[in-house]
Amino acid sequence: MDSNHVTFASTSRSQDLTKGTKPVELAHRHGCHYRREMKSRMFVGLVFLALLQAAHGQNYKLLKSIPIGGEGGWDYLAIDATARKLYVTHASKIVIVDLAQDKVVGEIADTPGVHGFAIAAELGQGFSSNGTESRVSVIDLKTLKTIAKIETGENPDAILYEPARSKVYAFNGRGKSATVIDAKIDKVVATVPLSGKPEFAAADLKSGRVFCNIEDKDKVAVIDTKTHLVIASWPLAPGKEPTGMAFDAAHHRLFVGCHNKTMSMLDSETGKIIATVQIGAGVDACAFDDATQLAFASCGDGTLTIAKEETPDKLAVVQTLTTERGARTMALDSKTQRVYTCTAQIAPEPASPSPPAGERRRPSYVPGTFHLLVYEAAKTPR
User: Fold this and answer.
1) What single DSSP character describes residue 381?
2) Is the dihedral of CA 297, 303, 309, 314 positive or negative?
3) For labelling alongside 378, which of 113, 186, 225, 315 has CA 20 to 30 A away?
4) Domain residues for 225?
């Protein structure tokens, strides 16, 4: 039977079924059929989109809020995935959250103006960057007591532990340098001059490199971990004011969040910018999850951008998650893929004159409202 005959027979049957039907009634029947078909197609499309989003990790949602309280500002968060502990820097102390119970279980005191906390789990020690006193505190992770305080450059901010050589790098904001500490003996072994104000950093253990954002120069500095020398300086244009950084070791990719609302993916061997995506305003932290190949950028405007490294040469935004204003830093739990960020309730702005042009006024926060926000990926439908 040829296709022409099939078409003709189908048409004839259709004509027989509608013979004697009034035109208005016929139009109504066709209209109802069309609407049912369109609804069916829309339903199938939505199901397909939901499955696609789930497959790409495009369905992060708020799980809970954990109250912390207290007063003062905050900065970086750090996770010890094995010990199931989250360390939250807060004013002059570090708050410890048990990730199994999702509650505060302790704190580390006497860390004035603390910015970050680096964990040397195999040594049983942690290292805090105390910006106000320009020192690093060495902390016993069992007793939470301070073992020693080590002098650094002016205003240590980001801090990083490099386990291959057991070295701690404290990046000094106003000092424009990195203080290198031998974590086994708690002594300074080198000071690395930098071209500008350093921000966050990442380490490549295989190549023996530490990468550091130079915020006021729009560059990434590359430090050799053996010689403690800057061996390269990579421009980030069109990115400006880089802050957050994360690293994909398997594919040699760096993710750098910049204040002109971009996150760039760089080749960590050459410094070449491979891809760039749009993010929110006020980024301060980035993270990368090896298991899902997702890169995260947390922004102070109350957004968390999630991008998929689809290939080593392609980066695509899969979700822009609404968080809360001020939630600019974060940490990723590699075991659960949960994301933790923090903020507090913003107080009304005072009726004082506006700051000079080009300057930004930091918001004030209501005492006692500091809290953690926990986000997780929804379960994939079966």
Assistant:
1) P
2) negative
3) 315
4) 110-235
Q: What is the CATH number of the domain that holds 173?
A: 2.130.10.10
Backbone angles phi, psi at 92, to 5 degrees: -115, 25
Sequence-distant (≥ 6) Cβ neighbours of residue 16 within 8 angstroms: none
Q: What is the pLDDT of residues 149-158, one digit of tens each?
A: 999 999 999 9
Q: What is the pLDDT of residues 43-89, one digit of tens each?
A: 544 444 444 444 544 599 999 999 999 999 999 999 999 999 999 99
- List the one residue out of 267, 266, 281, 287 whose CA is nearest residue 339: 287
Residue 180 lies in a domain: yes
Query: In Å, what is the CA distance from 258 to each residue of 45, 285, 286, 327?
Result: 35, 10, 10, 16
CA atoms within 13 A on the CB side of 179: 28
Supply the DSSP symbol for 8. Answer: H
Report angle CA 363, 367, 368 to the nearest 5 degrees. Answer: 130
Answer whether residue 177 is part of any domain.
yes
From CA 380, how far away is CA 50, in angstroms rounded?
A: 9
d(CA 32, CA 18): 15
**Does 16 map to a domain?**
no
CA angle 64, 92, 258 (to 5 degrees): 65
For residue 32, report the phi and psi dihedrals to the nearest 5 degrees: -65, -40
Q: How many domains does the chain have?
A: 1
Token code pair at residue 328: 């600019």
